[in-house]
Structure formats: structure tokens, C-alpha cells
Amino acid sequence: MGSRQGSAAFGQPWQSSHLLLLVPAALIVLITASDILAPTDIILGPLLVVAPALTAWFEGPWTTGGMGVMAVAGQALSGWHFGTLFTRPLIVQMIALAVLTVLVVVLCVVRDRRTRQLAQVRSVAEAAQHVLMWPLPSRLGTLQLASVYLAAEDEAEIGGDLYAAARTDSGARVMIGDVRGKGLSALGEAALLLGAFREAAHQHASLPELAGALERSMARYLADFEPDDEAEERFVTALLLEIPDDEPLVRMTSCGHLAPVLLGPDGQVTEADLHPAPPLGVGLQGSGGYPVDVLSFGPGDTLLLYTDGAVEARDRDGAFYPFSERAARWAGHPPEALLHHVERNLLAHTGGHLGDDVAIIAIRRIAIPHPSHRLEHAVQSGALGRGAPTGAGGPMAGG
Asked: Which of 109, 114, 143, 267 makes a 20 to 30 Å CA pair with 68?
């Protein structure tokens, strides 16, 4: 049954495009008949060029060329009817129609070639997105997660915003970041930071230590690959989160990144008060310069992490997108549905044209395990028996 459905779905576009061929074919018949029936001082033959031009919108060069041949044949039939087939005016008209048909066919060839190239580029971009930005798991311990990524560059699938999540023995760690710049030029820093986080998230007991490790990774990368004309201009803002399973709170370390928004079950909006450190890549060493802020995060609460593209998006009048206010409308929805509404509303606000990449993560606290269930939860997650120190990460569930 599945193969039949697939064949039927594949055949529908083919059938619809071939049904559309009846339109230019009917135009050829109609124009030719009208030219024959019209008075001799009314010449309708040149209108036959509409047929191949119209065909080029939905068919390839061969079909377009065939329609052009039919148009030339229609003009020849009109000339034969009036006995002017070999006269100079009609020959010139037929040659002009043939030349215009050839030009339309050439345009079809160029269009199809660019379409194939664009499809290849988008395929590579999509593959890069899946390699760099692993899809976040929908469930991570006591959390529900969802994410959305909107690239500002036309036809791009990924740019300079990034996010990742990792499961640890006692909770989850999440990162969201924004590379200076946008589009494909920022992929190097994004790839470096994602790889560094996925490894370091399991090796450092505290968020300041994790931030220090990411800073050292960025420093090594920039020392080797930073262009001389962009010295000290390449950096990444990042927000690191640690969400324990058994405490109704979230720990945060901001490296120059925007504070998250907390949505209560009733739609109440709370913006976290952070003490940000400098962005990653500016040379801050050690863990002492990375403060840790704590925010209450209980069952039913939803935490929204985002990049500046979400709050700096403008409409035609230059008004910024009211991110917190709009997101609060759907506070009671699951994370995936909430982000679906926010994405549609954001694109409607901007008319579909973003000035910067946008990344948003929604994290909902489901429940806090009872102490009697923590041992069972640890066994199910595979945390026991690995000999990992307190705070070290277990196998990553997603990133």
C-alpha cells in the first residue's frame, strides 16, 4: 500500500503540469483560428509567441521548444490559408517567432541549471545543519525541550547562532550562543564551540569551569585561524545553563548573552537578572570571572532561551518584535507548539525577512522526582556504575 501511495503522490505533479499544457496548446489553436477568420487588415499571428513563453513557466526546455514549433506551424497554416506563406512579411514573422522561441528555451536551460545548483547548495546546507546542530531531544530527564532555527541569509539553513544540550548524572546542561556576524561566514566559530561544549559539558563540575574551558578552546581556534584584519573582532556570546533534576531552579552563566525569559503556567513573565561576563573569545582566562546566577524554575514553568535576532527583528515601521509579550500568549502550550506559534508570529511581524539569524529554545520543567525515585532514575539513565565524579556528565542525549 505504501508503494502505491508513493507512486500516486509522485504522479500528481506530472499530471498537473501536463494538464497545464492544454492552455498554451489551446492558445495556439485559438490565435490561429482567429487570425484566419479575422479581416485581412488584422494580423494576430505575432501573438503566438505567448504559447512558448507561457510554457516556460512550468515546463522544461524541450517541451517549451516543442510548443514554439507548434506556434510557428500555426503561423505557417495561417499564411497557407491566405496564400502568403512564402511572402517576405510572413517569413520575417516566422523567423522572429522562431528566434524568440530559441531565446525562451535558452532561458529555460539557464533557469533549470540554477535550480539544480540551488538544490545542491540547500542539500549541503541541510547536511551541515544536521552535522553541526544536532536536533535537541524532546525529553531530557525532567525537561521537555523544543528548538527553532531561522537563518537570515536567503536559502541558508544555518548561520551564526547555535545551541546544544547534554545530559549529566544529576540534570541537564544547555548552551545557546551567537557568533559575531551571520550566515556562512560564522560557521567556523559555531562548529568549534558546539564541539567544545559537547566534550567539556561532561568534564567540568561547575558552570564557571565549563565557561573557562570553552574560552580556552576559542582562544586556540582564533589564534590559528583568525584573519589579521579581524584581530580581536571575533567572539561569541553564550549562555550556559545547568538544570538539576532534584531542585526547582536553574543555574546560569552568561558570557555576554541575553538573559532568558521565564514563563509561568499562568502566563506570568519573569526576565532573569544576570551578571554577564565578557563574550567567549575576548581573552578572559580562568573560572573566577564567570558569575553564576540562580533562577527559580519549578514544575510547569517554561524557560525561553533566544538570540538577539528574535528581539531585534523589526516590522516595516521599524518597531521591534515584542518577544516576551507575544510568547506569553502561548505560555500554556507544550514547548514545540509554543515555538511554532512564536515562529509564525515573528515571521508575520517581519514580513518574512529577518535581519539576523534567530535561534530559540523552549525548556519546560515537567516535575521534580521524589527522593525515593532518584535511585531508580539514576539506574535508568545509566548514571550508576560509570565512576564519574560529582557533576561530571554522562552520555549525551542530544546536542
From this structure: 114
